[in-house]
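Components:
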Amino acid sequence: MSSTTKFIVGGVVVAAVITLLIATSFSGSGSEYLTVAEVKALGPEQARNSRVSGEIVPDSVEWSTRDLHLVFKIQDGTGILPISYHGPQPDMLVDAVEAVAIGKYDLQTEVFEAEDLLMKCPSKYEEQQ
Amino acid sequence: MVLSDIGYGALLLTLAAALWAAVASWRGAVQGRPRLVASARNALFATAGLTTLSSVVLLVLLLNHNFEVRYVYEHVSTYLAAEYVLAAFWAGLEGSQLLWLWMLAIFTALLLLRRPTWDQELRPYAMAVLAVTEAFFALLLIVMTNPFELLSAVPVEGISLNPLLQNFWMIIHPPIIFAAYALWTIPFAYALAALVTGRLDATWLRGTRRWTLAAWASLGIGILVGAWWAYLELGWGGYWGWDPVENSSLIPWLVGTAFVHSAIIQERRDMFRGWNVFLATFTFVLTVFATFVTRSGLIQSVHAFAQSPIGYYYLAYMLVVMAATVGLMFGRSRELRGTGELGDLLSREFVFLVTNLLFLGSAAAVLLGTLWPTFTEAVRGVATTLGPENYNRFMGPLGLLIVVLLGICPLVDWRRIDAQRLLRSLWAQAAVAVFTAVLLLLVGIRETWAVLSFAVTAFVGTTVVLQMAQGIVARMRSAGENLLVATAQAVGNNRRRYGGQIIHFSILLIVMGIIGSQAYQTEVQVALATGESVEVAGYTLAYKDFTYREVQEDGNKILNQAVVEISRNGRQLATVHPERNLHSNVQGAVTEVALRPNLKEDLYVVLASLEPDGLAAFQVLITPLVIWLWIGGMVLILGTLIATWPARRKRK
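Structure:
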């Protein structure tokens, strides 16, 4: 076998291993962007990580310093969704700001249990950085 | 004539001068008319002056609070501290594109200040490429994102700068990143010049080596500074979130790293000619892509992309650049064949090839991950985003493999490996690696991947240190010099080699910081009343006092802070003041973390909320070894300086 062939075969094998590794990292996970209505329509067997965003409903924010527990509602035109989050309050949590919640919808309590919260800066700001 | 007209007028003249420079340098080169090339050179010098004028005008407008100008209105206010006016300059799309153009014009002028030497034939073509790039950004600024656009009415107060950007590191992060992007334009310009002239031997790589290394290092440092800002300002205790904005600067860095390495093979063995041309172009295109991704809204949604036509300009430019490069490469396929022959599969050439594949594979994966929501939305109608866990799953193993190769590569010969010699030279490293692993297991670290990663890092670190020590020890023996003299002489005579090794060592320090901080972060969330305290990983945090205000006293900031005493084993270490301030311009609270770093671990305290009666919620994070990321960054600068420092002039 010539050197060139060896290099090509070797290179292809390495590239294939890398591709395989990347493919397995991407498959079967991630969180889907859903609207409030879509989140509420999820069946029990479909409860998986999703990402839902909407404006914070004015005067809906309730925060307990004692329990580090945050509850608020968001609306996106398709409905209103209560969100519950345990952890420190994110910066710039303000009425009417757009919030992105990543987590799972609890069918029993009808509350979206967020594992992660992001506040989009008010539109008058550019995206960060 | 008002000031903003001067700024805009300077941009118009920049476009005209850049277009002239492109045409004149090209025609001058093709028709062999040096006076045309000289005129193009003058035009490019003029763009440096004009863009400087334009930038100074924007800065003056910002400092003077000329709210009539939309960009000024949107980014500063009368209460914004003067030093953050600089951060405001590049906080928006308009300002950051002006910064890109300005940097490019300055670097182009610096390049042209030196008389052509090796690049006599290539330079006019490189000038044409640089001029076209300048024209592209000037055109964007003029027709799409004019920073000098006026509002119909003059507001009395500006919106001011996002408080998250009011940080020292945000003053310097964007200029470093954009300087890096502008610097990457130079190797790209010469790659195209090499294609046009057919001078595709390693001359263009050698000639642009300093620019390439400066670009590579600035980009790396820029990314680290951004990470440092995120760590300090965003208050979640991390420094890297695999956010599209972060990813988009990492991708060109990964491809650029592949380029820096495969350039070495071409210099040494005259292989991979076409590959290098492609990598230089691709890195440049990715820097443009980075600007495009963060500004076009493509990542948020395909629909947002369609709304703003600026994305199409970027897309068109990137396509033109890629098409031109690939087209020229076909035309030059004969010259792109190098003279070097491939060696054995077990050779340094092959290790370099695998390194290249690993870097490109990582870059492709990060790129794919960044565009994943766009793809899934286009294909399935529902956008899916990937979380950090997806990225870590491939980046962990790929990164570790790269580190392993970093340790093996210097021990492997060109053409073929002497396996016995290789194995014999590995015992010291292997011993250190095993010792590290055992030590970690003894102190109670059980995660397999963390132990493995640290052992690999120790293995490679030993290789790098031994490699550096060899030359120094040899000098001490043969010339009888003492350690300091021998080190200075060895490094001075082999700047490139030692610089490279120091850079490799800095990467290991950064890797160590990443492993430590990813593996063993301790987090506690707790609510405390004044007088109460909490124990976190051996530290005692006593909540002593607080300041709670409801009205603003200065600027637009309402200060709220807690006073926390930190002690360990009864010994008091420090008093820290985490803050959670209300900013009236965003009508929201922004936290300022309190940080107490040391070489072993960082103690990071966030005031998550504060009630009028003093009840406070804290988030306390202890992150091991994170400081080594920043120390590694400083070592990286040192290594780059050594590797690029001009050699002493030889006596004639």
